Amino acid sequence: MTLQYQLKEGNYHLYDMSTPASKVTGEHRLRLKTDNVAIAFDVRTGVLHEHGSPVRIQSWATTARRRLRAAGALDSANDIVVVSGPLPVDEINKCLQISGYCRRMFTRLATLPHGKRIERTRAA
Prior knowledge:
The chain is of the alpha+beta class. It has helices spanning 54-70, 74-78, 89-97, 101-107, and strands at 3-8, 11-16, 29-34, 37-42, 48-52, 80-85. The chain has one domain. The longest helix has 17 residues, at 54-70.
């Protein structure tokens, strides 16, 4: 399954690019529509664990941390980081496609542009 986020009408749309495009709309299967995206990953390795709507991802991270701590894996529990908000679509997609990219994105998070910025052109 190949997943890709696209920004449409101020919302993030997650498409399954491995499905055939609709003959009517030309779009692939829509898996998620959300106003913000959250990404859960391991801060040391940058490995992506989960992505999607912020409420679901925060819930997943809380449960995963609780289970890891109960199993005595405190370091692993503390390494789970959740980043959410209006992130740039290209950065989100790189996290999905490139193993370990989340860590690189995390180090540059403060300098990334607002993900929902609409480029406006001046009329000539």
